[in-house]
Automatic annotation (TrEMBL):
This is Pentapeptide repeat-containing protein. Residues 1-41 are annotated as: Disordered. It holds the Pfam family Pentapeptide_4. Gene3D superfamilies: E3 ubiquitin-protein ligase SopA (2.160.20.80). Residues 7-20 have a biased composition (Gly residues). It comes from Streptomyces siamensis. Transmembrane segments: none annotated.
């Protein structure tokens, strides 16, 4: 079994005005010696333990309900791969690529996702706990009604991520670009957005209660916040 260190219970980072936000606990996955995957297609409800998947093409395959434990997936193609209700535990995914990967209602726990190039990933209803997403780009990430706890997005680009109805607790965005994020109906607890390289919220700016942003980000979000509150901003001169 992989050994991991999660950095204890997590500290509290100081924010402006004396407020604080609890830091996310990051996974530190240490994989045991791995056996190479023997090839073939994924199997529904399959059990994959201590395996290395290298440059495997899983496009269009069905691994729904499968369990991946202490695994390394490197350079794998996941186009239209069906992994609904899968469990990915104590594993590292590096260089994953594909469009339309279905991970709906799956569980990712103590997982590192590195340099992914994905589009239209379905993670709605999923549970992510102690997950690090580092580098890469993910377009149209669907995390509607998902539960994220101790999740860090670092140095990655997220284009139009959908967090509608999701719960985010101890989630950090570090040097991460968010473009057109949807927070409609989301619940945020100890979410740290201050270190985001770019913060663009298309919908649900009213759900930022429970998040911490920087003064500069507040200025950038001011028009959206004003519109949300029905405040009209007019820079014209007052007529006498």
């Amino acid at each position: 079994m992989a050994r991991r260190a999660t950095g204890g219970k997590g500290g509290t980072r100081g924010a402006g005005g004396g407020a604080g936000v609890k830091a996310a606990r990051r996974p530190e996955v240490r994989l045991p010696p791995l056996e190479p995957f023997g090839g073939g297609e994924l199997e529904p409800d399959g059990d994959y333990d201590g395996l290395e998947f290298r440059q495997a093409d899983f496009a269009g395959q069905d691994g729904g309900g499968a369990r991946f434990m202490d695994c390394a997936l490197t350079g794998c193609a996941l186009d239209e791969t069906r992994l609904h209700h899968a469990r990915v535990l104590d594993s590292v995914l590096t260089g994953a690529r594909g469009v339309g990967t279905d991970l709906a209602e799956s569980t990712l726990r103590d997982v590192e996702v590195v340099d992914a190039r994905l589009g239209g990933v379905q993670l709605h209803g999923a549970v992510l706990e102690r997950v690090l997403v580092r580098g890469g780009k993910i377009d149209y990430l669907n995390l509607r009604t998902a539960r994220l706890k101790d999740v860090v997005f670092q140095g990655c680009v997220l284009v139009e991520p959908d967090f509608g109805g999701a719960r985010l607790e101890r989630v950090e965005f570090v040097d991460c670009v968010l473009k057109g994020a949807d927070l409609t109906g989301a619940t945020l607890v100890d979410v740290d957005l201050r270190a985001a390289a770019e913060l663009d919220i298309a919908r649900g700016v009213d759900r930022l209660s429970g998040a911490v942003i920087s003064p500069a980000q507040l200025l950038d979000l001011a028009p959206a916040l004003a519109a949300e509150r029905g405040i009209r901003v007019d820079g014209g001169a007052v007529e006498g």
